[in-house]
Amino acid sequence: MKKREYYFDNSKFILISLVVFGHFLQSFIEDNEATYTLYKVIYTFHMPAFILISGYFAKGFNKKGYISKISRKLILPYIIFQIIYSVFYFFLYKESSFQVDPLKPHWSLWFLISLFSWNIMLRAFTKYKALYSLAAAFTIGLIVGYADWITNYLSLSRTFVFFPLFLIGYYLNREHFSLLQSAKIKIVSLSVLVIVFTGFYFFPSLNHEWLLGSKPYIEMGAASIGALFTRLGFYVLSLIMVFSFFSLVPKQYYPFTKLGRNTLYVYLLHGFFIRIFRESSVQKFFVEPKNFLLLAVVSLLLTLLLSSKITVPFAQPLIELETTKLKNLQARLSTIMQYYRKKLLN
Q: Which range, of 207-211, 253-257, 288-292, averages the lowest pLDDT?
């Protein structure tokens, strides 16, 4: 693996760790201003950065078989986990009836259906010059907020709102990311993080739902022309934060680097732990802000577990519809057992 690839794997691992941490934090955003501020800072860039990276790696969308490949990679796991989450919620929340609605994604599953849609949308938008395509994507993202019927249904709201970031990622190349690696830009990026945190802290009235992209303007109490400029402001903020994040990501290989390849496993599986956590009494222990460092450690450990060789072989049949990793694990265990059996016999 080349060093440049380490950079993207590092990026994905750090981002998925922040996704897990952000979902843990969500339970406490109404209890403490500092917590709410940290939550909003994370949400300004963690999913936007993921979406941008996804666009960066979608450059082969015109290749033969690409659509069938991403359908297998995204739509089939979406359907499988939509059913699994429906069963899980039925028992967790003791619901009176069992329902599976494939058109309304459960919680974090929106990303799969939106990612599939973004890849399809590239076919139309990349027919034109980048400037025109980006202008059209941002315009749609801004205007779609006025359509109060576009919400969580098929993840349409997030699909249109976040598509500009996916499209930007598609137009970027490695050299663009290299430009972010200078010492001066890293200092500026750190300053940006501090400034944004301070801004959110002293202006707590800024609604975090603007960062989610899941609701029309009217549901956020802002159906006037000013809502368009508010979303535009959040677009600018997210882009600044995204590139600030990328400037701070290390390029070297670390023990966690390879795990950056398994972010989909973490994304699809961590929700079960988050939901159980929110329903348990354990949650009360973390109400105090002083325990949030421990919560960050828990998030990191959960990310390591779900992306590791312990989990991936057993989850692969559900997520990738393959058993290669499980067969490899069985082969390794068989080899180890044979080795020790010979040792005992000798």
A: 288-292
Residue 192's nearest CA partner among 237, 251, 250, 249 is: 237
pLDDT on residue 92: 87
Query: How deeply is 188 buried, as exposed, middle or buried, from its count of CB atoms within 10 A (0-12, 13-18, 19+)?
Result: middle
Residue 91: other Cβ atoms inside 10 A: 9
- Residue 170 and residue 126 in contact, taking contact as beta carbons nearer than 8 Å: yes
Q: CA-CA distance, 157 to 213, in Å (whole number)?
A: 6
Q: Which of 30, 10, 21, 43 is nearest to 197 (CA)?
A: 43
Pairwise CA distance, residues 183 & 130, whole Å: 29
Cα→Cα distances 3→49, 136, 177, 265, 311, Å: 20, 35, 13, 24, 26
C-alpha 113: how far from chain center: 13
> Tokens representing 166?
């996916």
**Distance set, CA 256 to CA 3, 121, 250, 300 (Å):** 14, 33, 12, 11
Q: Average pLDDT for residues 109-114, to the nearest whole number? A: 96
Q: Give one word for 65, left, alpha or beta, with left for phi > 0 and alpha for psi -120 to 50.
A: left
CA 254 to chain centre: 21
Give the DSSP per-residue string, 267-324.
Answer: HHHHHHHHHHHHHSGGGGGG-SGGGHHHHHHHHHHHHHHHTSTTTHHHHHHHHTS--H
Predicted pLDDT at 346: 64
Question: What's residue 58's pLDDT?
Answer: 95
Query: b/e map of 74-85 (b: 16 or more CB within 10 Å)?
Result: beebbeebbebb
